[in-house]
Specification:
5-stranded antiparallel β-sheet; 15% helix; globular; alpha+beta; single chain; 200 residues
Length: 200
């Protein structure tokens, strides 16, 4: 009898320590844009690759943008352990990358976002054509967003979560943003406008 109780107690400790009480099916949406300069090589959740499970979710008629989706089993705080690995397929040197995770509360239009970090310092090591870069969630950036959501009465584990690769910076005079090549507006400081001519 005592042995059985000990086994149950041990099992309960293991379940608690690994967060199994929050284990269930989770999902992530991936926003896709035309002419993406970075190709998704791998997507991992808690160290496990789920890239092969990614499938088209929605595509609006007449639009080049679409949304992929992937489902997986994990605990409620899985978004802390997500990582995206990309390969530079632009043919250009990339000086900076901008990407976000978005949290959308059910029934609301408001979005909460946290910017992802590159695994390497892109100021010291640029992403040359063919090179790869990994993007992960930085806890110091995530915690203030989670606290903001908590104060607003938002339950993060009930939010829809999506990922967007927003920006690839080629230099001071050129960048890609959600499907468009942009250049500085010569007449308005800090404003970017579409590059004339066909996109590369």
């Amino acid at each position: 009898m005592r042995l059985g109780m000990n086994l149950l107690f041990t099992a309960a400790l293991l379940i608690t320590s690994t967060g199994m009480f929050g284990l269930g099916e989770k999902s992530l949406e991936i926003q896709r844009y035309p002419n993406e300069p970075l190709q998704l090589v791998d997507l991992k959740i808690s160290g496990q690759s789920v890239k092969d499970r990614i499938a088209l979710k929605t595509k609006l008629p007449g639009s080049d943008e679409f949304t992929d989706g992937v489902s997986f089993n994990d605990t409620d705080d899985w978004y802390k352990r997500v990582s995206f690995r990309f390969r530079n397929v632009s043919g250009k040197t990339i000086h900076g990358v901008g990407a976000d995770l978005f949290f959308k509360p059910a029934g609301e239009k408001n979005l909460y976002s946290v910017q992802l970090n590159a695994s390497t310092d892109l100021k010291k090591k640029l992403v040359e054509p063919g090179d790869e870069v990994e993007l992960t969630v930085n806890d110091s950036r995530l915690q203030p967003i989670l606290e903001m959501m908590r104060q607003a009465g938002v339950e993060v584990n009930k939010c829809e979560v999506s990922f967007s690769l927003d920006t690839a910076v080629y230099g001071e005079q050129l960048r890609w943003y959600r499907g468009s090549l942009l250049q500085p507006d010569p007449s308005v400081p800090n404003k970017w406008i579409p590059v004339n001519g066909p996109q590369q």
